[in-house]
UniProtKB/TrEMBL annotation:
<protein>
    <submittedName>
        <fullName>Uncharacterized protein LOC112042031</fullName>
    </submittedName>
</protein>
<dbReference type="Pfam" id="PF25431">
    <property type="entry name" value="zf-C17orf113"/>
</dbReference>
<dbReference type="InterPro" id="IPR057456">
    <property type="entry name" value="Znf_C17orf113"/>
</dbReference>
<feature type="domain" description="TTF-type">
    <location>
        <begin position="28"/>
        <end position="104"/>
    </location>
</feature>
<dbReference type="InterPro" id="IPR006580">
    <property type="entry name" value="Znf_TTF"/>
</dbReference>
Length: 213
């Protein structure tokens, strides 16, 4: 085993390598790598101060505080420093804030929720208008409107609990009648000839047929 004396022991060799590595790191002059900005678009390099910082967190530092070196700016040009900042909660919260501020109100989450609410309300109103229209068309009692609404709910249509009374049914029918009245008036005003035929009369209800030309 005499030949082994020419080789350093494994433990000693590792210590030498560690010392060499520490010496290399101590003398190494790190520089900002512009390629980092491809992955981290918020990273800014200040050529005059020779520092890098996060433009998102810096723009919000008055509101959010924080002690990340990338807010004040740092010349510790290590990718790990950048990655650490990208992963921190403060930066992620600030990124969401900036994204929310730059998103048009019409595309925001709040606007989307409001739109869904409006669509749901619109769907409920359509069901109620149809029920009220059917009641009026078949000369049924407005008292049946509540039953119609309960039936729609049982079908899963979700018409809600508001505006389900007989008075509401009368209001829906009145609104339908007003729209139809305006439509008929427009037709009468624009037509050259008009013929009106009374079809049936019973219980005080008249059916008319109008012909416009
Ligand atoms: Zn940041």
């Amino acid at each position: 085993m005499a030949f082994l004396k020419h080789f350093a022991k494994p433990g000693v060799k590792r210590k030498v390598l560690d010392l060499q590595s520490q010496e290399y790191e101590r003398k190494r002059i790190r520089k900002f790598q512009s390629s980092w900005q491809h992955s981290f678009s918020w990273l800014v390099y200040d050529t005059e101060a020779n520092t890098m910082h996060c433009k998102i967190c810096r723009s919000l530092k008055n509101d959010s505080g924080g002690d990340s070196p990338l807010i004040a700016g740092t010349s510790n040009f290590k990718i790990d420093v950048v990655r650490l900042h990208a992963a921190c909660k403060q930066h992620q919260r600030n990124s969401e804030l900036i994204a929310a501020k730059s998103t048009p109100i019409s595309q925001s989450v709040a606007a989307d929720c409001l739109g869904k609410l409006k669509r749901a309300e619109y769907t409920r109103l359509v069901s109620k208008f149809r029920s009220a229209h059917a009641i009026a068309k078949h000369h049924l009692s407005f008292n049946l409107f509540k039953t119609f609404c309960k039936l729609d709910t049982a079908k899963g249509l979700g018409v809600g609990t508001s505006h389900t009374t007989d008075k509401s049914a009368a209001q829906f029918v009145s609104a339908i009648a007003n729209v139809e009245r305006r439509r008929v008036i427009q037709k009468i005003e624009s037509c050259k000839f008009l013929s009106l035929t009374m079809d049936v009369i019973f219980w005080g209800v008249c059916h008319f047929m109008c012909f416009f030309t």
